[in-house]
Design goal:
Order of helices and strands: HHHEEEEEEEEEEHHEEHH
Structural class: alpha+beta
Helix content: 25-40%
Radius of gyration: 28 Å
Largest sheet: 5 strands, mixed
Bound molecules: dinuclear copper ion
Length: about 325
């Protein structure tokens, strides 16, 4: 775009510095421009016909308004030519929109054969990503640039929806069924991930990022993540996991009550449970609360924590427990 126009458009807010426009976020995937073209086509088509129809309506209402008895229409019932025109043109447009949308939908639904496989799990209220080929899990989606990525998604509880506006990618994530989306990006960057299906109290906090890395950085990230925690102080590793695994979305470590109980200073104390019994917070209670949280819920809280059974390695469980132990009141 000519820079004079670009500057004017930037000032008017029609184009944003990150490459987005007044209507749309930046186009960060290979399918984004096609999706936007379809959108703009339908949008401007609608604007055009809105203006034409409203103008014609206003003109006829004024020009042929009823002024005296001799203005009554003289029995005209229809006009075959006109009716064909206003049936055939919209039908052609409708067909064009359908074909355009349908081919786009097929493109979005069929991942290329050489795509990188990533499994996505949605649960109240966090995303996790696992890389079956590398045996790595992460709470951010990290991908290499210039390679198609196929996401096979499922939910551990209710319906969520995986949404990356910059990629024009959005698909429901369902319990007991896999859904698939794919995308390919051309350059490194960071993009927001939202949950686009209302899924309970913390729906609006069910956020994460896609980080697109250069190939070498991606390989480095994979290797580092695979060996995470090795040679690391368990408390420090636990603190890192506390954020990575999304614990901090519901639990604070400064005594503030959120969805779940604050975790500082709880170790060694006795807490009341919702079934009327009480329990001393020790290693076993913490482990049990990670694996099967609903079994022993602290009074004043709802049994909404997702089970982490099968999601955490033993060394990760140990590190999280060590971290919680280290938190003082
Ligand atoms: Cu998950 Cu909304």
């Amino acid at each position: 775009m000519n820079s004079v126009y670009l500057q004017a458009a930037l000032r008017a807010g029609l184009v944003r510095n990150d490459g987005g426009t007044f209507w749309m976020p930046p186009q960060a995937s290979t399918v984004a421009s096609g999706v936007d073209e379809t959108f703009y086509f339908i949008y401007y088509l609608s604007v055009f016909f809105f203006i034409v129809i409203v103008a014609a309506m206003a003109f006829f209402a004024l020009r042929y308004r009823f002024r005296s008895e001799k203005d009554r229409t003289s029995g005209v019932t229809h006009h075959t030519g006109l009716e064909i025109v206003w049936s055939v043109i919209p039908s052609i447009l409708l067909l064009a929109i359908f074909l355009w949308g349908f081919t786009g939908f097929v493109d979005l639904s069929v991942p290329p054969g050489d795509a990188l496989n990533v499994r996505v799990t949605g649960q109240k209220w966090l995303w996790s990503f696992s890389y079956p080929d590398a045996g790595v899990t992460s709470n951010e989606l990290v991908v290499p640039e210039g390679r198609a990525v196929k996401l096979t998604m499922s939910s551990r509880d209710v319906i969520h929806s995986f949404y990356v506006p910059d990629f024009r990618v959005k698909r429901d994530v369902l319990p007991n069924r896999y859904t698939v989306v794919w995308f390919k990006t051309e350059k490194p960057g960071e993009h927001h991930v939202f949950c686009a299906e209302y899924c309970g109290t913390n729906h609006s906090r069910m956020l994460t990022k896609v980080r697109v890395l250069a190939r070498a950085d991606y390989d480095k990230w994979l290797a580092e993540t695979a060996s995470a925690g090795e040679g690391m102080d368990p408390v420090a590793f636990g603190e890192q996991l506390f954020t990575q695994k999304g614990c901090n979305a519901c639990h604070t470590v400064d005594g503030t009550k959120r969805i779940g109980p604050p975790l500082n200073g709880i170790f060694g104390h006795t807490v009341g449970l919702i079934d009327g019994t009480s329990v001393t917070v020790d290693d076993n209670y913490l482990r049990q609360s990670l694996m099967d949280p609903a079994s022993q819920v602290v009074q004043g809280f709802a049994p909404v924590m997702p089970p982490f059974k099968g999601q955490l390695k033993d060394k990760e469980v140990d590190a999280l427990i060590d971290y919680i132990k280290s938190l003082k009141e």
